[in-house]
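[09:14] KT: can someone run the structure on this one? pasting the chain below
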Amino acid sequence: MSARKILVVDDNDNVRSFLVLLLERSGGYETLEAATGEEAVEKAISGRPDLILMDIRLPDISGVDATKAIRNNPSTAQIPIIAYSALHLVGWKEQALKAGMVAYLQKPINFELLMETIQKFIPS
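[09:31] RB: done, structure tokens below
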């Protein structure tokens, strides 16, 4: 079986690079990267990842709006999307889950929890 592919969406280059490095080294995952919501939608369609890690606050459209766009496309509608954000306000989590995200993790990311959450949706 080929490596599972994860799209990592974060406008912070350092956070995105760190997550990609951790996923590739410890999970054996293949990764795609996006820095904006629009780019996330495009990469979800073109790259067909098995799972998406989506930051909520992005410079163009929010991760919630990007998730809605991904959910509205029949070719990407079933991809599990895990939200992660430094936003700890109650309303953001509800918006993320209502938009179709399957889980909501808080920054700073607890890597063990992240890996456990990924395994729930794309077991290796």
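[09:33] KT: thanks! The beta strands are 5-9, 30-34, 51-55, 81-85, 103-106.
[09:34] RB: yep, looked fine to me
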